[in-house]
Amino acid sequence: MASKTNTQSQQAHRRSRRPAKQSFFQKNAKWLIPGVGVLLLVIIGAVVLLGDDSKSGSLDREISVKEAAEMRDDGAFILDVREQSEWDEFHIPGATLIPLGQLASRVEELPKDQEIVVVCRSGNRSQEGRDILLDAGFDKVTSMAGGVTEWRSEGYPIE
After folding, report:
1. In a domain, 140, yes or no
2. Annotated catalytic residue 120
3. 80 with 118, same domain?
4. DSSP state, 146?
């Protein structure tokens, strides 16, 4: 009887030394956690890139003076975001003046269903103006690189 109890005791002891059965996640944790991290980074990167593209609608974020002139000839709305004193020196014929500092509070004056080319003296403020309009829900907005200074130097009409 003692040998039977001894055998049972040895078998129980062997069973207790066996490692507990691990779940899928426990077995694969060393690659699963970094893998999920990489997957999240890829998803976040894609959202950021796609979000940036969709923000600018169907127009390039910035266009050349030549492209702006063509868009103007095709009926695009030209928005000048310079100050009144700069506008008085010269401006693009048919453009509308709304100084950059007033733009956010005057967006309702602009056509949402028309392409808008934002211009300034050199192209810096027009990028800010474009972003204000994009944030306000306008999707057909672009900025003219080089500004009205380049417009004039390339021989396009001014008033």
Report:
1. yes
2. yes
3. yes
4. T
CB 159 within 8 A of CB 152: no
Strands 116-119 and 62-63, bridge-based pairing = unpaired
Give me the tens of pLDDT residue by residue for the chain, a chain 159 residues long.
Answer: 555 555 565 655 555 566 667 776 667 667 667 767 777 777 876 666 665 444 445 678 999 999 999 999 999 999 999 999 999 999 999 999 999 999 999 999 999 999 999 999 998 999 999 999 999 999 999 999 999 999 999 999 999
Task: Report the C-alpha dihedral over residues 82, 87, 90, 93, rounded to 10 degrees.
Answer: 90
- The range of the structural domain enclosing residue 37 comes to 27-56
In terms of domains, do 52 and 121 share one?
Answer: no
CA 120 to each of CA 5, 41, 53, 139: distance values in angstroms, whole numbers, following the listed order: 96, 38, 23, 20
Of 120, 141, 145, 148, catalytic: 120
Asked whether residue 7 is assigned to any structural domain, the reply reads: no
Question: For the whole model, what pTM was predicted?
Answer: 0.65
Overall domain count for the chain: 2
